[in-house]
């Protein structure tokens, strides 16, 4: 069995605003093993970025409040750590890749310096010559040609994709065990996105790094993830292996997400399934199931009581009353079922 | 075959000094037929947005000709003709946060068009028309008095669409209208655009980089690369039988929500090849055009 690196238990994060307390993360639990990639998917405002920032302890306090729960990294709860203790964890143990490579780098500093800075900060006994050597190795690792020359250049001399590679190199500089990537490819073109995804998978294989990958693009999830957590309104509503989520989705919100993506493989032009309405206000989260108001399959109980996580299989859980033994049997909507069937048949044929 | 609504002939749009210009759009030609959706895809910097902006006269073009309903749109025009032209062609912008004036109510934003054109003298009529437009895009009449910040991203984009519809145009240029929106909201907006197209016989030029959405909404697709259209054909043809290596590379990079294929996916890298031969547009199959030299086309077709 692989070693458990991270365990998040019932994490709750609130933000104080003039309008009231926003309950951005409302009891999130998941775990992550060594060398594994967990994708967190959801729409903006679902709490996926707050969750990842909370693991890095990057929530500004105030206005942010850790209202409950624990984050066990290597068995140690990092929520009560002081800023000074936390600075030893950041970079060394957990590092982050940010969404926008245009703003994540310092425009007035040579790229090489931005990498050696991290190396020197985290290793007291490394000389600056050694740091430079390591930085050039890192640039090479992330696939930047002519690293010696690039080392001396400024960020504006790099293209978007190359800059994102530099950001990844910085994140890797102190050899972290956990990499949190918050929409690392959203700002990039598809061809560049594909390269960056390959790169991250490659690095993961070489260094056995664990990755938390935050995105709203289900195609990217299918490409990188081992396991997937679908977030809605500050909670994980479905949780399972990548195959569970894509081939046997159980939560109506997951159906909505899958259905709202057009299928590149089919030539039919049926209307896209949409999720009507918009996400709830998290200052006053609705009673019962937060998704009920947008759910065409909502039951009466959805408006009264919050559903628990129901177990679908050993790896697969979903938070919907539809999985209760007394609930009416509602199959996966036709359009999605047909698409899944198509994918599975194709995979089988290719396997032969 | 439907009528040609828009003809673009050898359009060039250069920026910067004339001795060393940046060739954003470098000699492209295509037609848009009445009632269809033409998708324009490519990576950032390939010139797709510039093309859209040149067509709607936001730029003075460097060279070439753009005919709308048979008339050259960049030729000298009287004010009256210009106004008429502006009514026919409208644009939907990418960023629903930046494209709406925060100091105006939704109603004022939508009505600005017909105030300029003096369409409704009577207050009652004007209010009715605003209400109709709001309802057409799935909002309520009551929303007319609200300001942009009171709406969500998807609702704002609906206001942007209502504004584009306010003058009853026949042609709409949608420049990445959904890329700033969440997945579930994207589908809502795309379904709305399709519905409006059916109801009002609209013609769209749909500019985007999200290939799966473009394939879904478009009848025909043009693929742009470095200021040129490298391949143009029906949506299914482009996706199922791409010929130009750049199109193949682009398609191979689109991630699909299907983990089993994704894990085995092989990307096809694209290496730009320079050739000294004459490059031109070839009609490889009926209505399927590819840009390249004779020998390249022969090689690619294999």
Automatic annotation (TrEMBL), chain A:
Transmembrane segments: none annotated. It is found in: Cell membrane. Residues 6-258 form the ABC transporter domain. Gene3D superfamilies: P-loop containing nucleotide triphosphate hydrolases. The keyword Signal does not apply. InterPro entries: AAA+_ATPase, ABC_Ni/Peptide_Import, ABC_transporter-like_ATP-bd, ABC_transporter-like_CS, Oligopep_ABC_C, P-loop_NTPase. PROSITE patterns: ABC_TRANSPORTER_1, ABC_TRANSPORTER_2. SMART domains: AAA (SM00382). GO terms for cellular component: plasma membrane. It holds the Pfam family ABC_tran. Keywords: ATP-binding, Cell membrane, Membrane, Nucleotide-binding, Transport. It comes from the Bacteria. GO terms for molecular function: ATP binding; ATP hydrolysis activity. It is a peripheral membrane protein. Its main location: membrane. The keyword Cell membrane applies. GO terms for biological process: peptide transport. Belongs to the ABC transporter superfamily. PANTHER family: DIPEPTIDE TRANSPORT ATP-BINDING PROTEIN DPPD, OLIGOPEPTIDE TRANSPORT ATP-BINDING PROTEIN APPD. NCBIfam families: oligo_HPY (TIGR01727). This is ABC transporter ATP-binding protein.
TrEMBL record, chain B:
GO terms for molecular function: ATP binding; ATP hydrolysis activity. Keywords: ATP-binding, Nucleotide-binding, Transport. Residues 6-251 form the ABC transporter domain. This is ABC transporter ATP-binding protein. It comes from Ureibacillus endophyticus. It comes from the Bacteria. Signal peptide: none annotated. SMART domains: AAA (SM00382). Pfam families: ABC_tran, oligo_HPY. PANTHER family: D,D-DIPEPTIDE TRANSPORT ATP-BINDING PROTEIN DDPF-RELATED (PTHR43776:SF7), TRANSPORT ATP-BINDING PROTEIN (PTHR43776). InterPro entries: AAA+_ATPase, ABC_transp_ATP-bind, ABC_transporter-like_ATP-bd, ABC_transporter-like_CS, Oligopep_ABC_C, P-loop_NTPase. One of its GO terms (biological process) is peptide transport. Belongs to the ABC transporter superfamily.
